[in-house]
Amino acid sequence: MQNKSIVSRIVNQITDAIINGELKPGDKLPTETSLCATFEVGRNSIREAIKILEAYGVVYIKRPDGTFVNDRYSQKMLDPMLYGILLEKNSSDEIIQLRKVLDIGIMQQIMHTITPEQIAHIEGCLENLINAVSKKDKDIETVLNADIDFHMALTNASQNQLLLSMYTYVDRITIPSRKNAVKMVLAEDDTDDFIRLHTEMLTMISRKDFTGIEQTINDHYKFWKQVI
Question: Which of 3, 30, 69, 83 has a 20 to 30 A CA-CA distance from 140?
């Protein structure tokens, strides 16, 4: 237990140094010997802490040069949060709230920045979704992927890397429940309503109608809320 406490302290202090700007993306960490002296611990504790930081995507090891602060986004950075949510027994409401906050933020942002080219791209994604649900032999995976592409096109239009990173994370943890929502839509032949809800999002963006964003997002979750 004591060793775990020591390792946690090292992990937290190195993380704090990155947050505070003492260590910047791309910086090389001090040598193992220097870290041992700084934290007044043995090599095993330093090595275990570095392994944890590497697993989280915070640092990477480049042999024989040393250990460096990661200078680019890695999905591994969000994995600990992902596993924490998956372990929660009653996290459905929290997941809905998290996605809602992101979707509202994305809608607000792209209304300020969206270009005609981006609108045309989103329209193309919507057309692909319409085609997917209009086929005689509807394929769940095809419809799901078209839905994912539509929402990812919206997120990309925000031109905000932090929003994109967070949405990618939320997208990953909601795909299983969204797949169930697609199954329900196809089984109950609710495709017209499904497409209407997507079309409303695009219409609101095109008109830059800020007043109805929250209601539009709430309506958009109609099917998803029934299965999550």
Answer: 83
